[in-house]
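Handout, section 4.2: multi-component inputs.
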Amino acid sequence: EVQLVQSGAEVRKPGESLRIACETSGYSFSNYWITWVRQTPEKGLEWMGRIDPRDSHTNYGPSFQGHVTISADKSITTAYLQWNSLKATDTAMYFCARSHSGSYDYWGQGTLVTVSS
Amino acid sequence: DIQMTQSPSSLSASVGDRVTITCRASQSISSYLNWYQQRPGKAPKLLIYPASSLQSGVPSRFSGSGSGTDFTLTISSLQPEDFATYYCQQSYTIPRTFGQGTKLEIK
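Output:
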């Protein structure tokens, strides 16, 4: 059974760093890109970027380039989303998803990130 | 970036109704259009890819059509579990983009 299990909710202060995880199982991790999607009530679903676990090649959306880092560890079939300096506007629900021919067929349950002073 | 515009933004309907949701791309995306359903507090669920193929396990009352810039998702006979928010997403180019969503509510 394919599963993507995300790490738990986080609360941070502006300027702090954070890394959230997406642990996968039930399929060959290297064969499918992993994508991160942000969801807020104001902007809906936003495509943040993706990683090819075979070689860690990444693409980022223009709004996220330079502000987040996507990485993956093949040895533990886990993808990560990282911030070095959080902003209040990063408060959102974050989803990881497995990419299959451009669509997203399996999703994590979501990680709520709250950034507040 | 390609902009995806859904209409309507919200829709009230009754169990048994036939419902159609439209998604328009700001430029041609061929048939690279996917549809998702999201229930409150849950992750999106893939329904249709690309444009008209039904994802495994999705009921046949869901169907998709279109190509180029205009696409539709149709639910032939609404069931109580179908009341949710629906999103389209283009997979033609990077960055991928989603529509703003259509909230389907019970009348």
